[in-house]
Amino acid sequence: MNRNHTLDVIRGFLSWVVFAVHVVWFSGYRGGTQEAIGAYAVDGFVILSGFVITQLLVIKKEAYGVFIFRRFMRLFPAFAVCVALSLLVRPLTLGKVSTELVREASEAQYFWWHLGAHAGLIHGLVPTAWLPVSQFAFLPPGWSISLEFQLYLVAPLVLWYGARFGIKGFAILAVASAIMLLPQLASRLNHIWSGAGAFLPQRFVFFLIGMKAFDIFGRGLGSSVQYWPGFVRLGEVSYSTYLVHWPVLASLNAVLPRELPPLQQVEILFLVGAPITLLFSFLLFQFVERPGIALGRRLTKESSKIVIEKPGVVVRTS
User: Fold this and answer.
1) What are the Cα distances from residue 287, in Å, to 16, 95, 282, 292?
2) Lowest-pLDDT range, 30-34, 148-152, 192-196?
3) 24-54 burial, b if ≥16 CB within 10 A, otherwise e?
4) Of 7, 113, 169, 293, which shows the fewest CB atoms inside 10 Å?
5) Which residues pair with 317 in a beta bridge?
6) pTM for this one?
7) DSSP secondary structure letters along 40-109
C-alpha cells in the first residue's frame, strides 16, 4: 500500500504541535489553551488513525490475528525504547516538576504493575482505582499509544459491523460514541480512568470520523499533491517524535536553572530540544521502528505457513 504524503505531512505537523505544547508545559504554562491544543492534536491523530486503519483493512484484508500482531509490532518497539529512556533519565528528572509528584510516587510504589501494563499496551485500560495514574506512568505521552492499540483491537469488528448493518448501523454506533462526550458521562469516565482519554470510549467517536472519512474520500485524499520532501520525512518519523520528545524535554528541563524566567525557558527548551528530538526521531525510526515493522511482517508471514507431515515428506503450504 502506497503511503499518502498528505497524511504524513499532517502527522508531522501534529507531532510538533505536541512537542511545542510540552515545551510550554515544562516552562510552567499549564491548563487552558495549552491543554486544549494538546487535546485537539491527539484527536487529530485518532482521526488519521481511523482513516489509515480502514484503508489498511480494506486493501490488505489481513486475518484478525495477523493484523493485530503487525499493529502491535508497529507500536511497541519504539514505545518500549522510549519507556526505557524515560526510566534511564528518571533519577535526573525525579521531583523536578511539582505537578508530577503523584505520578512519580505511583511509579515507585507500583513499579512492576505499571511496567506489566505498559508491556501489554493496556495501561490506558486500567482504572485509576486499581493502578493510580497508570495512563501516564513512565512516559506521559504514552497514554495515547494504549488508546491506539485499543482502537486497533476493535477496528476490524467495526468494519464488519458497518458492512453488516450499513449506514444506519454505523450512525447508531457514532451517536452512542458521541454521547460519551456529554459532560455528565465524560466526567464519570474521567473519574474512573483519566481526563486525558486513554480509555477507548472516551475518544472512539474521533476514530469513527476517520473511518467515515475514508469511505467518503477513499484513496484520493491528497494522493497527487507534491510536498517538500522534508515535510514528508518529518511525517514518516512523527511516531518517534511523539514519543521521544518527552524524555528529551524532561532531561533538559531538569538541568535548567530554576530561576529562569518562563519565556526564556520556552526559548531554550525549544531551540535545544527540537534538534535533539529530531536526531533521536530519525535514529529511533531507522533502528527501531522500521526493524520492528519488518519483524512483524516476517513473523506473520512465517506463521501463515502450515506444515503438513506425510511419510518421509514435509510439505509447506501457505
Assistant:
1) 21, 32, 8, 9
2) 30-34
3) bbbbebeeeebeeebeebbbbbbbbbbbbbb
4) 169
5) 306
6) 0.92
7) HHHHHHHHHHHHHHHHHHHHH---HHHHHHHHHHHHHHHHHHHHHHHHHHHHHHTTSSGGGHHHHHHHHH
Three-state DSSP class for residue 307: strand
Q: Is 316 helix (H, G, I), strand (E, B) or coil?
A: strand
Report the C-alpha gap between 202 and 39 in whole angstroms: 12
Q: Which residues constitute the domain of residue 112? A: 5-317
Q: For residues 148 and 128, give the distance between their C-alpha atoms in angstroms, rounded to a whole number.
A: 19
The total of structural domains in the chain comes to: 1
Q: Please state the rounded mean pLDDT for residues 105-120.
A: 97
Are the CB atoms for 248 and 26 separated by under 8 Å? no
Containing H/E element for 155? helix 143-179
Q: What cell numbers appear for 173 in the block?
A: 454506533
